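Customer escalation, tier 2.

The customer says the design service returned an amino acid string that "doesn't look like it belongs to this structure." They asked us to rerun it and document both sides in this ticket. The original structure tokens are below, unchanged.
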């Protein structure tokens, strides 16, 4: 898993990865950066990464919520990461779409939805019906060999 810094920006604003994957923190800038994060269940990391260099971080355990990553040298730089024990996670694209392939079917699955502005998303509309998700959690049962389109909408007022 690669986590890059370029033009004084963390290139991946939100990242998810498996605990078994070492995170390679790359600095593609001509100046030094710092990667500072304090997970709740794994060892902290606070290291300066020289220009054109890299550092490696290995999570010890998964996190229940995304962890803030900051650069102590450039305080406007911030990103979020979440290490998970399994491969059942996704980060949305620019349009809010995501895909989690190969999920088990015919069982109730629990999902959590998070956004950096609202944190765990709670007030949503699913298929036109208003719902409230406790701490961003909702359950969904998937049919075998099918694709499920959840049709979730979040009011723009939630991001103010």
């Amino acid at each position: 898993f690669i986590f890059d810094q370029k033009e004084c920006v963390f290139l991946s604003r939100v990242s998810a990865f498996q605990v078994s994957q070492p995170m390679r923190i790359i600095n593609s800038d001509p100046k030094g950066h710092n990667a500072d994060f304090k997970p709740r269940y794994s060892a902290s990391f606070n290291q300066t990464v020289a220009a054109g260099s890299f550092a490696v971080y290995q999570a010890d355990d998964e996190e229940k919520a995304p962890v803030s990553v900051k650069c102590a040298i450039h305080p406007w730089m911030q990103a979020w990461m979440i290490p998970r024990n399994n491969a059942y996670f996704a980060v949305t694209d620019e349009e809010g779409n995501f895909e989690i392939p190969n999920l088990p079917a015919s069982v109730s699955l629990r999902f959590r939805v998070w956004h950096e502005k609202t944190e765990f998303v709670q007030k949503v509309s699913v298929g036109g019906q208003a719902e409230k998700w406790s701490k961003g959690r909702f359950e969904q049962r998937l049919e075998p060999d099918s694709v499920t389109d959840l049709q979730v909408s979040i009011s723009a007022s939630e991001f103010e």
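Tier 2 assessment: The sequence is consistent with the input. The first strand starts at residue 2 and ends at 6. The radius of gyration is 17 Å. Sent an explanation to the customer and offered a walkthrough call.
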